[in-house]
Each structure stands twice: as structure tokens, then as C-alpha cells.
């Protein structure tokens, strides 16, 4: 529980009696995580720019209550629309708990004319919404800022809850399970420059290092690109969000100039996949630094790193380079669609250290289809070689392969948990005496749950509902036992999709 009211810059409070639509934007995790997300800033701004709509925010953790808004303590169930962004599969439990705490019936079939419409968007449901249909009235499939105004109009102009939901079913990119559509389009904007973009972003007024501070710190979030120009076989973004789209350099500069005037921060965080593929990224970063503000980027492809770019990033305050080799094996890297060579990775590390970086974050995937013990040895040798030839601190993140719906590897089984544990132990033992190297690993139980929810069907609703009532990993295990549905082994079952692909209707 928060001990005092949360202070923020640029939050919006409207007189709810003078608007037509009350929208509750919900993030089913911590305030810190939610305020790091670009979707929140975009949708919050778009909705509150409408004179007829009031959007207020709700978070599962770190605020006074998940059932009371940050802005005015508006009860969650008083909204006409309760909209969630589901970024991580396991947050579905938090979503259900927020509904329950907010006195909104968990199941669609139990809701009445007096209950809000429950809407969910985000990468999880755009990939496969079927495990969540018991709880959700409507899903936004694709980029929600394209349809947010259509959603509001459908609710504003209809007389009843059922009429509003029926109207939502007619909107391209909206999936209403009770309407039983034969196909649903995944919607994407073609021209990013044409979209409205928030320049007065909400920022918490907290001390640096506070638990409430966003992951990137207090910064202006600048969306540079959407989608990805590559198509690694395991990657959701590379499959669902092609082609890669970018804002023009002129538009990006304009947004930065407006953003640092209207958002009280001294840092710009660039957002986008494969940022290094952007023409003139170096020009943009160096220009931002010249404006007297700090700048940061997420991971960069090793083959896109240049001395000039990294030197400007160092001047802008960034000291950690993040790259994703995925595996230390050149051959396996090619087979997964990651067109990077060992030499390009090694050269990127060398360039970063010369530019003034002092730490390196490396992302690897273990348990990839076709992976051998020799490939694991290659990963060990790569990390050892980087540590031997560099004085930077190295953090290697080991993440189990998770089959994702709508990717080329959606049908590939996840290795058994003992197999994955053995691969992790192999790497840990191989790097035991390697200096300046820290290993991070995702909990393998979490990876099993993610896999099941990613490729599951509607029968998982029973497990989800039971698990939400218990909470934690133990809750998932207890729910699996009670329902008899094999959640933890689902992702490893090669016959799991023998009855058809649940998300095949998504186009």
C-alpha cells in the first residue's frame, strides 16, 4: 500500500459528470512496470485528448488499491470500459485479481448491464487470445491506437452494454468471442508519422532510484520504430509486426523538442526493435545529446554498432551495451534466422569498450530446436572469449526457448524441464571461474507457464481461474491438479496441436 498520494507530472483529472465515457486503463502488474510501457502513454494521451472521455489508471501493485484510480480514486467498476494491456502471459492472474477486487464479475457470462466492458490488448492476446476468452468481452488484435477512438465511439453512441459489445464486433481488429467470427484482422499502421503521439507524458515525481521510478528512469519515451525487419523463427515481433516502420528523422526531432519542453525530464529513451537498422540513428542520437539531455537505447544488433553511435551514447550517459547473440554457435544462429556472425559480435564488444562502455548485457536462448551440446559449448566459449578480451562487466541472461503462437516455431515443443536445467548447469559450470561474468536465468517454471499460455486453447480458462484464486507458482500447480489439465507439460507435448491451431482465425 502506498503511504501517501502519488505525485505525478502531466496526469489528467476530469469532472466525470461532464464526459460521456469513463475509461479505466489497467496495467496488471506494478506501477513501475506499467509506467515504463509506451502503450500506457499513447492510449492515456489519446483518450484524454477527447473532450468526451476521461481516462484514469489502475495498477495491480504499488498504488493505494488496484480498484481505485491513481488520479482521483475512481472505483474500477464505475468505468464504462476497463481496458488492460497484457504484456506478459502470467500477468493474467493479476488481471483477474484486479477484476475481483474491483467487484467486476470475473466471467463474461456473469456480467450484467451494469458492469463495465472488459477489453484487453497487447502482444500476448494479439498472438493468441483463446486462453483468456472466459474473462474478456473484447480483444484488440494488433496496434490499439488505431482503434481506440472507434472503441470509444461504439460505447458512447450505443444505449446498452450488449449493443456496445455488438458494435465493437464490427470494428476491424476487434475480436469479440461471443460473436464467433470466422476471421479477425491483425491491424497495423502503415505510416507512423501520421499517428498522434504524446509529448506531455506522465512522469512520477519521485526520487531517483525509487521503487516507483520507471525502468528507464524518468525519461521521455520516443517511439522510433514499430515492428522488425528481421524474422527470427522464435520471435513474436518479427512475425506479427512486419514490415518494420519508422518515423522520419524530422518528425523524431520535432517530438523530442516538444517532449523535453512539456515533460519535465532530462533524458530521452528511444523505443523500438532493431533500432540499429534505422537510417541515420547515429545522427538522431548525436543530435539529442547536443540538446543537453541524456539518451538511452535498448538492445542493438551487433552488426549495426558504429564508433560514432556508441561515443554519442556514452556522452548521453549510457554505459551498458545490450546485444542478443541468442547462441554462441554461428551455425545454430543462422538456422534460427539470426544473421549475425561471431566476428560481428566480437567487433561490437571491442567498439563498445573503446567508446567508453563499462558493462555488457548478453541475451541467450537455451533449448532452441536443433540445439546440441556442442552449441552449448559454443555459448560458453563465446562468453569466455569476450571476458578474456575485455575488461567490461558481463551479464549473460539465459532464457529458455518458449514456443510462441504465430511464429514459424509455434509447433516446436519446449524441451523438458530437466533437459533445460541440465543446459543451465552446463553453462554455469563452464563459466564458474570466469572473471567479471554474472549469469541470470528465468525461472524454468515460469517458462513452462508462458509456453502453455502462448499455445493453449480455451480449456486453459479453467486453470487460469483456479490459479488466480491461489496465486503464485504453487497456485498454478494446484490449479493443474484440481482441473486435470496438464498445464506444465503442454508446451513440451509434440501432439498438443493435433486438433488444430486455436488462433488460426487471426489474419
Key features of this structure:
single chain, 507 residues, alpha/beta, Rossmann fold, Transcription Regulator spoIIAA, 6-stranded mixed sheet, 4-stranded parallel sheet, 18 helices, 17 strands, globular
Notes on the protein architecture:
The chain has 507 residues and is of the alpha/beta class. Among the domains are: 172 residues, Rossmann fold (3-Layer(aba) Sandwich), CATH 3.40.50; 127 residues, Transcription Regulator spoIIAA (2-Layer Sandwich). The protein is built from 18 helices and 17 strands. The strands form five sheets. Strands 3-2-4-5-6-7 form a six-stranded mixed β-sheet, sandwiched between helices. Helix 9 links the parallel strand 12 and strand 13. Helix 13 runs parallel beside helix 14. The longest helix is centred in the last third of the chain and has 17 residues. It is globular. The two termini are 43 Å apart.
Blueprint of the fold:
Blueprint: E1 8-9, E2 21-30, H1 31-34, H2 38-48, E3 53-61, E4 81-85, H3 92-101, E5 117-121, H4 123-127, E6 138-140, H5 148-156, H6 161-169, E7 174-175, E8 203-204, E9 220-223, E10 225-226, H7 236-240, E11 245-246, H8 249-262, E12 267-271, H9 281-290, E13 294-296, H10 307-315, E14 320-326, H11 330-335, H12 342-355, E15 359-366, H13 373-389, E16 393-400, H14 417-430, E17 437-441, H15 444-455, H16 460-470, H17 472-483, H18 487-490
Amino acid at each position: 500500500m502506498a503511504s501517501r498520494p502519488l505525485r505525478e507530472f502531466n496526469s489528467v483529472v476530469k469532472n466525470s459528470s461532464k464526459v460521456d465515457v469513463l475509461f479505466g486503463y489497467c496495467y496488471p502488474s506494478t506501477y513501475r512496470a506499467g509506467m515504463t510501457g509506451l502503450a500506457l502513454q499513447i492510449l492515456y494521451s489519446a483518450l484524454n485528448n477527447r473532450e468526451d472521455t476521461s481516462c484514469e489508471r489502475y495498477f495491480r501493485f504499488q498504488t493505494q488499491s488496484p480498484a481505485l484510480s491513481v488520479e482521483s480514486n475512481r472505483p474500477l467498476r464505475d468505468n464504462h470500459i476497463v481496458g488492460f494491456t497484457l504484456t506478459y502471459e502470467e500477468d493474467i492472474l493479476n488481471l483477474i485479481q484486479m477484476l475481483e477486487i474491483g467487484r467486476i464479475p470475473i466471467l463474461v457470462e456473469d456480467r450484467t448491464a451494469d458492469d463495465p466492458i472488459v477489453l484487453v490488448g497487447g502482444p500476448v492476446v494479439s498472438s493468441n487470445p483463446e486462453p483468456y476468452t472466459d474473462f474478456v468481452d473484447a480483444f484488440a488484435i494488433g496496434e490499439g491506437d488505431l482503434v481506440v477512438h472507434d472503441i470509444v465511439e461504439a460505447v458512447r453512441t450505443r444505449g446498452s452494454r450488449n449493443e456496445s459489445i455488438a458494435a465493437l464486433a464490427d470494428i476491424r481488429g476487434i475480436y469479440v468471442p461471443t460473436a464467433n467470427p470466422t476471421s479477425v484482422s491483425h491491424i497495423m499502421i502503415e505510416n507512423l508519422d501520421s499517428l498522434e503521439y504524446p509529448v506531455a507524458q506522465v512522469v512520477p515525481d519521485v526520487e531517483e532510484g525509487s521503487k516507483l521510478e520507471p525502468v528507464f528512469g524518468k525519461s521521455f519515451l520516443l517511439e522510433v520504430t514499430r515492428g522488425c525487419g528481421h524474422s527470427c523463427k522464435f520471435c513474436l515481433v518479427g512475425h506479427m509486426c512486419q514490415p518494420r516502420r519508422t518515423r522520419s528523422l524530422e518528425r523524431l526531432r520535432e517530438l523530442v523538442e516538444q517532449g523535453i519542453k512539456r515533460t519535465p525530464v532530462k533524458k530521452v529513451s528511444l523505443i523500438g526493435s532493431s533500432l540499429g537498422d534505422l537510417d541515420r540513428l547515429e545522427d538522431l542520437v548525436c543530435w539529442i545529446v547536443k540538446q543537453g539531455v541524456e539518451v538511452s537505447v535498448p538492445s542493438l544488433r551487433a552488426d549495426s554498432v558504429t564508433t560514432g553511435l556508441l561515443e554519442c551514447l556514452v556522452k548521453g550517459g549510457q554505459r551498458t551495451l545490450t546485444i542478443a547473440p541468442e547462441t554462441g554457435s554461428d551455425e545454430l544462429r543462422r538456422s534460427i534466422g539470426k544473421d549475425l556472425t561471431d566476428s560481428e559480435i566480437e567487433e561490437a564488444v571491442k567498439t563498445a569498450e573503446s567508446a567508453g562502455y563499462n558493462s555488457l548485457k548478453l541475451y541467450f536462448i537455451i533449448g532452441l530446436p536443433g540445439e546440441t551440446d556442442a552449441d552449448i559449448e559454443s555459448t560458453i566459449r563465446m562468453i569466455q572469449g569476450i571476458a578474456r578480451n575485455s575488461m567490461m562487466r558481463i551479464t549473460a541472461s539465459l532464457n529458455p526457448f518458449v514456443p510462441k503462437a504465430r511464429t514459424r516455431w509455434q509447433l516446436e515443443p519446449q524441451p523438458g524441464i530437466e533437459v533445460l536445467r541440465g543446459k543451465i548447469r552446463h553453462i554455469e559450470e563452464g563459466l564458474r571461474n570466469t572473471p567479471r561474468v554474472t549469469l541470470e536465468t528465468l525461472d524454468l517454471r515460469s517458462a513452462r507457464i508462458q509456453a502453455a499460455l502462448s499455445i493453449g486453447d480455451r480449456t486453459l480458462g479453467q486453470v487460469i481461474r483456479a490459479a488466480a484464486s491461489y496465486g503464485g507458482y504453487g497456485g498454478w500447480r494446484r490449479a493443474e491438479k484440481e482441473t486435470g489439465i496438464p498445464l506444465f507439460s503442454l508446451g513440451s507435448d509434440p501432439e498438443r496441436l493435433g486438433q488444430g491451431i486455436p488462433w488460426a482465425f487471426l489474419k
